[in-house]
């Protein structure tokens, strides 16, 4: 059988340097000449099976380290070069593999440096939040992806776009719907009669990886049958918002002053989504119903034939001057803790609430799918909030597919508890609320069983004689 030849010179050199050996010393142990080892390290001679076995027996080298492709390192390098700071510098996959193969030490150093940079960036972000809580404005910034810019813009401002909301309410009124009329039917009829667009639902096999697709040639809007009736309605309403309210959407978009074309496209999508909610739940009607129902989301979803997520999201938009609802805010997370949607009636309260505390009931919701969890929580400075959490189901999964499940937290200041139906689930006022923090790095609660990181503001308490409850004790 022909021997398999492996060119792994840089990795052999790395092993030799790690052991502090000269080429002569290693060559003697491997029973080859120093000149031959030199050729191997320069990839001018291959590593034979006999040499592999010799390396394994003499130096206890893992053969996988020598024989395996540098796929793991190349994958980590790909993450490094995908950072917006290096936008436009991403090499091709082959070049990344060549770097990982030819210079493994340098590749490892680049990865370590990038991880240190990301850690410092996270610390600076936490420090900026801490300073903001104390009233100090900072100008810390860095290269951001367009999606990060859009999220920050929408999270920092109130989740209310007055011109768009008023235009959507007027459009809904002009549809002339009466009690019992189906909004989805009315919107589809408007698309067909006004623009010649026909809406069709397609099976998964025809559109396996898309929610929607608009075919300009045939003038058809295709929706995936994976979507619930509520999500299909929102997709139709988004199309109507872009066509009927396009000028207003554009005006609101320009007011956001986003920095790039891609960010503006993402912002336009978010505004269309806002317009869809405004069409599905007209402001005046929805506010009146919310007050009568004492902001019970399940009653509102049934009243307007929408999903829990859609009704809860709309609650954060009720900030029309002179006709405002309670100032709710919300965030949506997945079961890994990734936060990918946050908004608020007055802007998401980053500095006051944070939302990164593992003790929030939004994380516990995953253990009780479909159940509404209500709690009163308190920040270290005494600020209190009423929190409402529930899981949300994503598009319908087929057999063998993993269900996409997220959880939504909706909250308001505890001062409004008497105006909210969910207050009935809270314990007696004499019971202490759940103590939370904005994030572990910004929280100085001692003895917290859920603490995942030490606070930035306190030194670690390294006492061999005393160990506290937290994994990160501090002085």
TrEMBL record:
Keywords: DNA-binding, Transcription, Transcription regulation. It comes from the Bacteria. It holds the Pfam family ScfRs. InterPro entries: Cro/C1-type_HTH, HTH_RamB, IrrE_HExxH, Lambda_DNA-bd_dom_sf, ScfR_C, TransReg_Diox_bact_type. Residues 12-66 form the HTH cro/C1-type domain. Belongs to the short-chain fatty acyl-CoA assimilation regulator (ScfR) family. This is Cro/Cl family transcriptional regulator. It comes from Rhizobium wuzhouense. The lineage of its organism: Bacteria, Pseudomonadati, Pseudomonadota, Alphaproteobacteria, Hyphomicrobiales.
């Amino acid at each position: 059988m022909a021997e398999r030849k492996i060119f792994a010179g840089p990795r052999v050199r790395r092993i030799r340097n790690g052991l502090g050996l000269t080429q002569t010393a290693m060559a003697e142990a491997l029973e080859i000449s120093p000149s031959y080892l030199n050729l191997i390290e320069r990839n001018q001679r291959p590593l034979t099976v006999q040499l592999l076995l010799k390396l394994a027996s003499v130096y206890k080298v893992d053969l996988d380290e020598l024989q395996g492709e540098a796929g793991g390192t190349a994958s980590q390098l790909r993450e490094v070069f995908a950072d917006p700071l290096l936008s436009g510098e991403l090499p091709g996959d082959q070049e990344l593999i060549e770097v990982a193969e030819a210079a493994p030490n340098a590749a490892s150093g680049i990865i370590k440096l990038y991880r240190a940079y990301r850690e410092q960036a996270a610390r600076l972000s936490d420090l900026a939040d801490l300073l903001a809580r104390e009233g100090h404005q900072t100008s810390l910034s860095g290269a951001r992806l367009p999606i990060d810019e859009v999220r920050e813009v929408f999270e920092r401002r109130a989740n209310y776009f007055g011109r768009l909301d008023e235009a959507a309410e007027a459009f809904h009124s002009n549809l002339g719907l009466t009690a019992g009329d189906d909004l989805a039917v009315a919107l589809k009829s408007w698309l067909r009669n006004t623009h010649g667009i026909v809406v069709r639902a397609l099976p998964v096999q025809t559109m396996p990886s898309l929610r929607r697709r608009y075919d300009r040639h045939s003038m058809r809007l295709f929706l995936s049958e994976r979507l619930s009736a509520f999500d299909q309605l929102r997709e139709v309403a988004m199309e109507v918002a872009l066509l009927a309210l396009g000028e207003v959407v554009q005006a609101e978009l320009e007011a956001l002053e986003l920095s790039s074309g891609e960010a503006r496209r993402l912002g336009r999508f978010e505004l269309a989504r806002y317009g869809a909610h405004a069409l599905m739940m007209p402001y005046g009607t929805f506010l009146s119903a919310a007050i009568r129902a004492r902001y019970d989301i399940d009653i509102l979803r049934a009243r307007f034939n929408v999903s829990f997520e859609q009704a809860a999201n709309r609650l954060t938009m009720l900030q029309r001057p002179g006709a405002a609802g309670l100032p709710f805010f919300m965030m949506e997370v997945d079961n890994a803790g990734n936060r990918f949607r946050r908004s608020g009636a007055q802007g998401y309260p980053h500095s006051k609430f944070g939302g990164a505390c593992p003790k929030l009931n939004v994380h516990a919701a995953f253990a009780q799918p479909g159940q509404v969890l209500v709690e009163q929580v308190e920040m270290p400075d005494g600020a209190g909030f009423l929190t409402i959490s529930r899981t949300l189901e994503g598009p319908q999964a087929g057999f063998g597919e993993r269900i996409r499940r997220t959880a939504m937290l909706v909250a308001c200041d505890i001062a409004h508890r008497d105006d909210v139906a969910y207050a009935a689930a809270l314990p007696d006022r004499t019971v202490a609320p759940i103590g939370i923090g904005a994030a572990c790095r910004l929280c100085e609660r001692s003895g917290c069983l859920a603490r995942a990181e030490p606070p930035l503001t306190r030194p670690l308490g390294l006492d061999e004689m005393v160990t506290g409850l937290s994994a990160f004790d501090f002085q």
